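Limitations

Structures in this collection are predictions, not experimental determinations, and the ligand pose is part of the prediction. Treat each record accordingly. The example that follows, with NAP as the small molecule, is included so readers can see exactly what is and is not provided: the inputs are given verbatim, and the output is the predicted complex.
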Amino acid sequence: MPHQNLQVRLAARPVGLPKDSDFEIIERPIDEPGDGQVLVRNVFLSLDPAMRGWMDDRKSYLPPIALGDVMRGLTAGVVESSHHPDFAVGDAVQGALGWQQFAVAEAHELTPIPEGVPLNVALGPLGMTGLTAYFGLLDIGEPKPGETVLISAAAGAVGSVAGQIARIHGCRVVGTAGSEDKCRWLIDELGFDAVINYKTVDDLHGALAEACPKGIDVYFDNVGGEMLDAALRLLRFRGRVVLCGAISQYNATEPPPGPAHYLSLLVNRGRMQGFIVFDYQKRYAEGVEKLGGWLAEGKLRYREEIVDGLENAPRALLRLFDGNKNGKLLVRISQG
Ligand SMILES: NC(=O)c1ccc[n+]([C@@H]2O[C@H](COP(=O)([O-])OP(=O)(O)OC[C@H]3O[C@@H](n4cnc5c(N)ncnc54)[C@H](OP(=O)(O)O)[C@@H]3O)[C@@H](O)[C@H]2O)c1
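Predicted complex:
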């Protein structure tokens, strides 16, 4: 058992894309768990676009990460020692345990990972990623069979699950993604009806209009900006826009322009609604059961990329913003 704990802390608030100097990588002695506490060895760290927002000193749905604090992040790992009756050495658990090799947690901060569920899957399609797609699409988007559903960042972790759920519900599914390989995967492997490589089209509106000839009933927005505007322009009567994220804006240094076509919501009696996956905590079990069933039946597929070594996490985070990765992005902190 090692004695030192490698941690990545927030050293400075980034301006634009995070730089190496915005992070500090340090080693410190591993904390001892106290009464009722559990020591966890992190195996995987989930890299999420939202982390960029948590690094800013701005009011949000969670407080900003304080300067000098360990970077916030969801991890899956193994119990190393336990002073709580509900957890035993060797148990697989997940929680917001941060960018570090070891974490001391209270029992209520940990969720057991059921036997047979690999730790990477517990952070991906069967974790926060899959649940975001599940509740965002079904609860906020309310897709109906035959409707057209547009998903942006469709080859990403959340988008690829949302698109497949829309397909399972009998919708016509259109996706946007930033490379030919991703577009091919969406069509050939996930069964999307149409895809657009938004990086190579000259006329985004024209391409979307062609891919969605009847217009858009549900837009699952992971991207914001121009993409949101283009989708609003094609919204159908009583269309729904699910505001899941706006990754095109997360590194902006100036407030971006608002959507020009927002009146489409009024004309079409449409609805645009944001959500945070944590809102659905009481229903996670339902989501996990459904997603697990589709995975087992082969109706839900996923891709992931694993970066080795916690010290590589700051650079790996940038791959969410340049799109240089396939599916869910994880960091392997230690061997499972
Ligand atoms: N509301 C919630 O509770 C909740 C929970 C989790 C995640 N989210 C949001 O869901 C979205 C997807 O998250 P994820 O974890 O699944 O990430 P992801 O989609 O796996 O990775 C991000 C992807 O976004 C695309 N992208 C990056 N910069 C872009 C830009 N400027 N314009 C257009 N596309 C860009 C890239 O793909 P391509 O360029 O190749 O398409 C990149 O691979 C994010 O906005 C995230 O904040 C929300």
